[in-house]
Design goal:
alpha+beta, globular, about 110 residues, about 35% helix
Length: about 110
């Protein structure tokens, strides 16, 4: 029998492209840990930022400097990533793509 853990988490690569001060694209990737959000909890979420508040559990392989130049950690790092337009779109896309891609019909 197949057992479905409805409280699961998973790691997913996140590809991110940002435009630097010189107008050039800078590409990189990092890993995010997401938790599965049941449909009953996602129906009232108005946008991707609220989705990330509910599903983003952690990140690895990315550094965001704080105002003092030191790398942010913990909740400060998560808040900075969710507040950055490029990072938040990349994170939400990685979450949604992983759910859809893994469950497409196989030939």
């Amino acid at each position: 029998m197949f057992k479905l853990n409805t409280n699961r988490t998973f790691k997913q690569p996140v590809n991110l492209t940002i435009v630097d001060e010189n107008g050039k694209d800078q590409k990189g990737s990092f890993t995010a840990t997401f938790k599965i959000l049941p449909h009953s909890e996602s129906a009232d979420l108005p946008d991707d930022i609220k989705l990330l508040d509910r599903v983003l559990m952690g990140v690895e392989g990315i550094e965001v400097p704080g105002e003092d130049g030191q790398p942010l950690a913990g909740d400060e790092l998560m808040t900075a990533l969710k507040n950055d337009p490029s990072a938040s779109v990349a994170l939400a896309s990685a979450y949604q793509r992983s759910i859809v891609k893994k469950n497409l019909p196989r030939n």
